[in-house]
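Morning!

This is the sequence you dropped in the shared folder:
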Amino acid sequence: MNIVTLTTDFGTKDYFVSATKAAIFSEVKDVQIFDISHHISPYNVTEAAYVLKNAYKSFPKGTIHLIGVDSELTPENKHLAMLFDGHFFIGADNGIFSLIINEKNTEKIVSINIHKNIITSFPILDVFVKIAGHISRNGELEIIGKEISSILELTNVNPVINILKSKIIGSIIYIDNYGNVITNITEKIFKDIGKSRTFNINAKTIEFKKIFNNYSEAINFNIKKENREEDGKKIALFNAAGYLELAIYKSNPLTVGSASTLFGLNYRDSVTILFD
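The structure's back. Tokens below.
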């Protein structure tokens, strides 16, 4: 059984997703297709990398991951196929690959060179699916591209640490379905720099002085429900992916509001941690 995943900014209104799946069924035998997400913000490679990086590990080794975000072929946006951590990734050299591997070693990366026989404005359908079919038949990556040693690196998405190691300046890289905001500050960086010191987390006018282990830990269940602070409770925690998240307990962007709307925080806004 071959497994192919899709991560795109196509949405679900148009025909793009169904056309891509139909092409996969035609090209890859005995295949299961999984949607990681089709609601990546348009051309947002940081968001795509965050979602895929934290999803791919749950799939078996040998899974083929197609990335349809900012994937148009240009002289500055070449197509790549990568073998990393036992998984295959096919997408554009727009920084997504560097964010997924995060300075770790890859088994192999090739620059895809089969385009001369294909005229397309829909590369995931016309190119990436063919590469997936080749891989599913145990084809070598060198057949469809030239091995390379360097890819586009996105460094502006990493948090900045001051010389005195008393401050971490991060930014928001993702806003989830609940309106919670996820920063690029990892638990590892926080612990390495903080070394158990007290701290303040500041994001615009919002301040946090405590990091919880989970959402419900912020609620005192020993107090009767009608008397305790619950709705609208602001929470800072490290999420399951290990990134600092600012949230509101049981938020709903469509009704009571969310961390993003109520805190006035959006993609790339700054989040600072000051250590005493």
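Headline: The longest strand covers residues 167-175.

More detail when I'm at my desk.
O.
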